[in-house]
Amino acid sequence: MTQNWRVFLARSAPPGAILDFSVAEFMLEVAINLRYCLKLVQPTPECIDLAELVLLRARHYSEARMGDKSRLFTETEDALAQATRLLEIELEYCSTRSVKSACNPVA
């Protein structure tokens, strides 16, 4: 089974060195992509909590980026990457759980 959620999760990464960074645009993009990720699996409560953590860390990253504080910016970027990685692990679990449920329907 393809794991389409990976495409959407990858779109939640920081955009890199662009000049016209928009906090609102980035936050909206992250929120939409996280929602798609959660729709494509059977999310556990942990999965939902981690998605909320990614969104929170994306906000902190955006604020640090706009504040032009390089040390804080680096820390928030690392924190966002770490939260995204944890969510990826949980989505992988949810994805395999979804496949098992489809293969073993309850009578």
Structure commentary:
By secondary structure, the chain is an all-alpha fold. It has 4 helices and no strands. The chain is elongated and about 40 Å long. Helix 2 runs antiparallel to helix 3 (45-67) and helix 3 (45-67) packs antiparallel against helix 4. The chain has a domain at 43-99.
Task: Give a short overview.
It is built from 4 helices and no strands. With 107 residues, the chain is mostly helical.
Overview features:
4 helices
Itemize the secondary structure elements and their pairings:
Elements: H1 5-10, H2 23-39, H3 45-67, H4 70-103
Helix pairs in contact: 2-3, 3-4
Question: What is the overall number of helices?
Answer: 4
What is the CA-CA span between the terminal residues? 23 Å
The global form is elongated
Oligomeric state of shown chains:
single chain
Strands, total number: 0
Percent of residues in beta strands: under 5%
Summarize the amount of helix as a percent range: over 70%
Structural class: mainly alpha
Low-confidence stretches are 102-107
Mean pLDDT: 84
Order of helices and strands: HHHH
